Amino acid sequence: MRVAEVMTRGVDAVAPTATVQEAATQMAEFDVGAVLVGDERALVGVLTDRDVILRVVVEGRHPAETIVQDVMSKALYTCRDDDAIEAVVAQMREHQIRRMPVLDGAGKVVGIVTLSDLAKGITGPEQLQEAIRTLSEPHRSREAPDKDDARDPAATDSKSEGKTADAADKRG
């Protein structure tokens, strides 16, 4: 099964200069736990509900005064719509993430795929249980990753003009 068969299409991104309150309002309106940051041509990060809690609420920042780019997760991993879901689950497991922007063959953002989307295509209960267990382990710090964070895959992917890492590249 391919990502295109289970992903959510037509997601709206927020500008890096938007406030966290604006982004959180969009998350509430669409009943989602994350928003992509940037536009369909160039993503610069993702803002998750966890980012909002740990980097805004816990630190006592005001959501209407905090800019998304200051608290978003900057390490951005993507997959392609024609990737096998098993490859994407493996990449999510490796990077300890639950959501991933989906690009088409031309590198354009066409949607997002989540762990729950991928669960629809996982056949065996053991495989599903292992994927959920691995992805649910604590792993993130409260600090926003630095733009030059060594975990940022930007330097490793020439197909997306240095912006993201692809599950397709993992297939070898």
CATH class: Alpha Beta
**H/E series, N to C?**
EHEEHHEHEEHHEH
* Overall number of structural domains: 1
CATH superfamily: CBS-domain
Taking all Cα atoms into account, the compactness measure Rg is 15 Å
Indicate the mean pLDDT: 79
Low-confidence stretches: 145-172
How are the strands ordered across the major sheet? 1-6-5-4-7
Would you report the number of β strands? 7
CATH architecture: Roll
Number of helices: 7
How many angstroms separate the termini? Answer: 18 Å
| Percent helix | 25-40%
Q: Tell the overall outline.
A: globular
What name does the CATH topology carry? CBS-domain
Strand content: 15-25%
Largest sheet: 5 strands, mixed
Description of the molecule:
This protein is of the alpha/beta class and 172 residues long. The chain has a single domain, classed as CBS-domain (Roll). The protein has helices at 20-30, 49-57, 68-71, 85-95, 115-119, 125-135, 167-170, and strands at residues 8-9, 34-38, 43-48, 77-80, 99-103, 109-114, 165-166. A five-stranded mixed sheet has the order 1-6-5-4-7. Strands 2-3 form a two-stranded antiparallel ribbon. A hairpin with a 5-residue loop joins strand 5 (99-103) and strand 6 (109-114).
Question: Which characteristics define this entry?
Answer:
172 residues, alpha/beta, CBS-domain, five-stranded mixed sheet, two-stranded antiparallel ribbon, globular
Task: Compose a concise summary of this entry.
32% of the residues lie in helices and 17% in strands.
